[in-house]
Amino acid sequence: MLDFGKRALNKAQTRLNIMNAVVHLCADVHFRDLKVKAIIDDAGITEMTFFNYFPKKEDVLKYMMGMRELDQLVLQLREPLKGADGIRRIFAHTAEQAMQNPRLIKNLVAAILTGEVDPNAIEIEAADRYLLYPDLPELYEMQIPSGNEMLIKHILEMNPGADPMPMLMRLASCFYGDMVLAFTAGLDLGTLYEHSLQEILGNC
User: Fold this and answer.
1) Sign of CA dihedral 32, 36, 38, 40
2) Is the Cα torsion angle 144, 146, 150, 153 positive or negative in sign?
3) Is residue 203 a contact partner of residue 89, using CB atoms and an 8 Å limit?
4) Helical (H) or strand (E) element with 203
5) Shortest CA distance to 131 belongs to which of 16, 53, 7, 5?
């Protein structure tokens, strides 16, 4: 098991504090309009500290993307699911996050779709994982799969040996398309996902 020193834990806590400040502030402000000054005041740090951890404000979004992937891995460790069940849980968890932080998720998706941030998440360091999940020591040194990697794994569990890319593309279209529709038309994202996955996965 890794032995985390005080310095590593302090750095991890600072990253989490910055992320939590952004989540808190984005309840009322669009991320694009959010000033670094507001973030550092909320997190209780200096501007220099902020930029030491995140060279660009948008990097906080990439850190959050990494957190989403970490959370998906934790769900899988605690309750392993395969195939269609695993895919449905990924989408259900996403819908739950969107309901909890709708403005922030809107900003994250918009930033990806407009190219403001690339879709590659920041790898979550072991100390950050420890602070969030002290009961899962096996998590600290694991490779965190990307969202696409996890979906491909579940697709192949449904149909080993098949080319997973056609279904992955359909799932990606559902993931982003339904989210945009939900946000623009005021519809329930979870319900949209359920209907789309029924079309894609059938009764699997």
Assistant:
1) positive
2) negative
3) no
4) none
5) 16
Residue type, 190: G
Closest CA to 160 of 92, 94, 83: 83
pTM for the model stands at 0.91
Query: Would you state the torsion angle of the CA atoms of residues 97, 61, 152, 93, taken in this order, to the nearest 10 degrees?
Result: -10
Query: What pLDDT score was predicted for residue 43?
Result: 97
Q: Coil, strand, or helix at residue 159?
A: coil
Please report the pLDDT score of residue 1 as a whole number. Answer: 53
**The pLDDT value given to residue 105:** 84
Percent of the chain residues topping a pLDDT of 70: 99
Question: What pLDDT, on a 0 to 100 scale, did the predictor assign at position 201?
Answer: 94
The dihedral region occupied by 83, where left means phi > 0, alpha psi between -120 and 50, and beta the remainder, is: left
Q: What DSSP letter does each residue of 83-142 carry, written as one string? A: HHHHHHHHHHHHHHHHHHSHHHHHHHHHHHHTTSS-SPPPPPPHHHHHHH-TT-GGGTTS
Q: Which region holds residue 93: left if phi is over 0, alpha if psi is between -120 and 50, else beta? A: alpha
**All domains of the chain in start order, with CATH:** 6-201 (1.10.357.10)
